[in-house]
Each structure stands twice: as structure tokens, then as C-alpha cells.
């Protein structure tokens, strides 16, 4: 059994704001280990709903042993994610682990199955040990991303200023408080089963608090989701720059961790969530007869504070426009095989190439040759003329892909569900 335990020794003090705060560690199989080696399994008994949400999230499945797409790229560029001592082609510790396996990265381990905490991706401890985001980017040519972008504490903390006291410190705190208010199970329970901590009263106590308000802001996310470039300086993931460009007052959490009954949703859906994608872009369809033809306008509105698609450069989106007769027979479509060449305006992509302008994988790309993604809050209209006779209905469908067409062909071993387009929007007009 894994239990949190307070280490009250002078050698285990974390200094924040001038206050010395005893740090926490975990007891694992009778041994004291750092918090980053604590499995999320130890949290689920109390945080059942949150644990279930997180367990099915891409954060929980972000490592190269769990995410098939990341795993395929990791094996191609780094090596076996279950082996120790793996490096990139320059002999450096794999930078991707700072985001995809931060618990392992804290121990500079590439053996992701060495312990559960390493293979749990972005786990409870990963986020709830962040103090603040120092800023992602490059320092002296070296990437400062993911774990490296954060100041990390050895004391767990939440966004609401909870105190995580144990043992005698918890007993003393309980005596100062009544048993009404917010339940804080990190305090433990007394012999009557009481374990309550009113946050408003804690704020009035003269106690060293670890309340991390940055967990309520986008700073909690942008250490990993800010920006990334390859060795040639080509931007790959740049959600942070897109977010800054939007000048929004919304936080990442307002969309990706919407509160339900006062608790933030730890599913943290993104590009793998059809529900989130459906809310990201609004699609409107207008069809008007004009001079013996049908004038069609498809309006797309990106309601997000970043590009759509965003993140991994191989994600893309396309519009399929179709016309049918009264029996549902297809009479006209804006493309036959793929809009990439047949209808470029309907293909929303971030295309990378080598020096010769040929398509290139993100790590090897030297230039960006096309960026037709929807910009933050952008409204874009696509116009068409349909000349087919006997059209009785026109349908517009918006599809999202996790992989580029070229990657779909090359990565045949990936599950079909990851390669298949996801319909995230549609509209139909009857004539």
C-alpha cells in the first residue's frame, strides 16, 4: 500500500516566499521515495471520479508505451521506451519525456516500465507539484520544455490553497477548526471520522500555505503546450504562440477542464475527443439558386483561442461538400479522393518540407510550405458553384484527422480508430 507521509526534517524543507515548508514524500513498499515515484493509484480511493476521468485521458496515456502515435515516432527517433539509457541522435536525454513522461524525466530515466509512476504519463503528481511556469523556449540553444519549464515542489498542492498536513500537524490544525466546510482528505481523519478543512478559515490561520493559483491559469498548461521547434528551427507545436495571438481572457481550463458540480473535469479532452472538437468549430451552410446553378457558402467559425487544428503538425482537417438527388444519389462532390490537391481551400493543414520542398517528417523539416489552419476565433467562408441538375439537398461535413495522409499510409500498424477521419461538424440544406 502507498501512503503519503510528512517528512519533518531540517534537510527536507522547501522554501517559498521566505517560508520554510516541510516537504512530502511517499512510502512505497516500506521505503521513502520522492513524490514523482508515487502512482496515481494511491489517489483513486478518495478521488474516484477525478481518477476515472484522468485514467481515460490522453494525459494518462501520453507515454511512448501507451500512445501508439507518440510510441511509433519515439521508436523511430529514439529507441525502445522500455530500455534505460536511451538518447536522441545527438546523445542527449530525450526532450520529449519532459512532457510525455515527466515523472520519469525527473529521475532522468528512459525505462518507462521501471515503475507505474513513470508510465502514467502526466499524472496527479505531475501537475499538482508545479509551483509556477518559468516559460518555455530555448536557453543557450537547449530546449526548456515540459518539466524543465516549471519550478517544481516536493509538496503536493491544489489550485484552491489547500494545506496538505499530516500527523501531528494535522491534529493541531483540526483543533483550530470546526468540522464544517470543504472536505480535504489529505488531512487524514480523527477517531470520529472527521476530516474537514474550511478553506476560508485556513486563509486566516498563520500557516505556511502552498496554494498554487497558477493551476487555475493557462500557465499550468503552457510549459508543455506552449511551443516546440525542431533542430532546424522550424516551429512544430506552437499552441502557446497561437494563444497569445488570440489576446483572449479565457484560460485553457475554461474549455478543456470545464467544471461539473464544482469539480474540474480531469478528462482534459483535446484532439482525441470528438466532443471537444465538435465544440471547437461552428459550421453554417447557405444554398441559393442563382443563374441556373446553386451558389453555396460554407462558413466556418473557430471558437477556440488557438488554431484548429493545433498541436502536433501532422493533424489536419477537411471539408466535404456533397449534392444529392431526391433518392439520396450523389450527384456532385467537391473532391473525388482527397481535397489536398482537388480542392485546396477545403484542406486545413500545416505542411512541412525539406530544403527541396518535398514533404518531410517534423523532426527533419527545414521549412513550412503551407499553413491553412483556422486561426484563433477566425471566421472563414468557402464558396462553391454546383452545376448538377435535380439537386434536392446539399450537405457540408467537416472531418478531423490526427495524422497526415502520408503518415496514414506509412503507419499501417496503428489502430484504425487513430487513422480514420472524425466527423466534427455537419449541416444540410433541403431544396
From TrEMBL:
Arranged from A to Z, the UniProt key words for this protein are: Signal
Query: Heme: is it a keyword of this entry?
Result: no
Q: Does the keyword Signal apply?
A: yes
| Highest taxon in the source lineage | Bacteria
Signal sequence extent: 1-25
Pfam entry (one)? Cytochrome_C554
Q: Which InterPro entries match?
A: Cyt_c-552/4 (IPR023155), Multihaem_cyt_sf (IPR036280), Multiheme_Cytochr_ET (IPR051829)
Q: Which residues form the Cytochrome c-552/4 domain?
A: 42-129
Q: What protein does this entry describe?
A: Cytochrome c-552/4 domain-containing protein
- Organism, by scientific name, is endosymbiont of Riftia pachyptila
Amino acid at each position: 500500500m502507498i501512503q503519503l507521509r510528512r517528512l519533518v526534517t531540517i534537510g527536507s524543507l522547501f522554501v517559498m516566499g521566505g517560508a520554510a515548508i516541510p516537504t512530502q514524500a511517499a512510502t512505497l513498499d516500506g521505503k521513502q521515495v520522492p513524490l514523482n515515484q508515487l502512482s496515481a493509484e494511491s489517489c483513486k480511493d478518495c478521488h474516484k471520479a477525478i481518477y476515472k476521468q484522468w485514467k481515460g485521458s490522453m494525459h494518462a496515456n501520453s507515454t511512448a508505451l501507451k500512445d501508439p502515435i507518440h510510441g511509433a515516432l519515439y521508436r523511430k527517433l529514439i529507441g525502445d521506451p522500455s530500455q534505460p539509457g536511451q538518447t536522441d541522435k545527438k546523445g542527449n536525454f530525450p526532450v520529449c519525456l519532459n512532457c510525455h513522461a515527466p515523472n520519469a524525466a525527473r529521475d532522468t530515466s528512459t525505462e518507462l516500465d521501471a515503475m507505474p509512476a513513470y508510465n502514467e504519463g502526466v499524472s496527479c503528481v505531475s501537475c499538482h507539484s508545479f509551483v509556477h511556469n518559468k516559460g518555455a523556449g530555448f536557453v543557450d540553444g537547449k530546449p526548456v520544455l515540459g518539466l524543465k519549464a516549471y519550478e517544481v515542489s516536493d509538496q503536493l498542492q491544489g489550485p484552491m490553497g489547500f494545506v496538505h498536513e499530516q500527523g501531528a500537524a494535522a491534529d493541531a490544525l483540526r483543533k483550530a477548526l470546526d468540522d464544517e466546510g470543504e472536505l480535504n482528505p489529505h488531512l487524514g481523519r480523527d477517531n470520529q471520522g472527521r476530516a474537514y478543512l474550511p478553506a476560508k478559515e485556513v486563509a486566516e490561520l498563520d500557516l505556511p500555505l502552498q496554494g498554487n493559483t497558477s493551476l487555475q491559469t493557462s500557465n499550468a498548461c503552457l510549459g508543455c503546450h506552449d511551443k516546440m521547434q525542431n533542430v532546424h528551427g522550424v516551429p512544430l507545436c506552437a499552441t502557446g504562440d497561437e494563444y497569445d495571438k488570440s489576446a483572449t481572457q479565457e484560460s485553457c481550463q475554461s474549455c478543456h477542464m470545464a467544471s461539473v458540480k464544482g469539480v474540474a473535469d480531469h478528462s482534459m479532452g483535446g484532439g482525441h475527443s470528438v466532443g471537444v472538437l465538435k465544440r471547437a468549430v461552428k459550421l453554417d451552410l447557405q444554398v441559393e439558386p442563382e443563374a441556373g446553378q446553386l451558389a453555396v457558402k460554407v462558413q466556418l467559425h473557430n471558437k477556440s483561442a488557438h488554431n484548429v487544428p493545433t498541436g502536433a503538425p501532422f493533424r489536419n482537417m477537411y471539408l466535404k461538400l456533397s449534392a444529392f438527388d431526391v433518392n439520396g444519389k450523389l450527384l456532385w462532390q467537391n473532391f473525388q479522393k482527397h481535397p489536398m490537391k482537388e480542392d485546396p481551400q477545403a484542406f486545413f493543414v500545416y505542411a512541412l518540407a525539406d530544403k527541396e520542398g518535398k514533404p518531410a517528417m517534423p523532426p527533419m523539416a527545414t521549412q513550412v510550405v503551407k499553413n491553412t489552419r483556422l486561426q484563433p476565433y477566425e471566421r472563414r467562408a468557402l464558396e462553391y458553384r454546383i452545376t448538377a441538375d435535380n439537386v434536392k439537398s446539399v450537405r457540408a461535413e467537416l472531418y478531423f484527422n490526427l495524422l497526415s495522409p502520408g503518415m496514414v499510409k506509412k503507419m499501417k500498424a496503428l489502430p484504425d480508430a487513430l487513422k480514420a477521419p472524425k466527423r466534427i461538424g455537419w449541416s444540410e440544406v433541403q431544396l
